[in-house]
Amino acid sequence: MSVALRNAQCVVPVRRALLRRAVCALRAALGASRFDVGLVCASNALMQRLNGTYRRCPEPTDVLSFPFHQVAAGELPRPRCRDEYNLGDIFLGVEYIHQQCRETGENFDDVLTVTAAHGLCHLLGYRHDTKPEWEQMYQKETQILEELNRLTGSRLRPLTAGLF
Question: Rounded to two decimals, what is the model's pTM?
Answer without folding.
Answer: 0.95
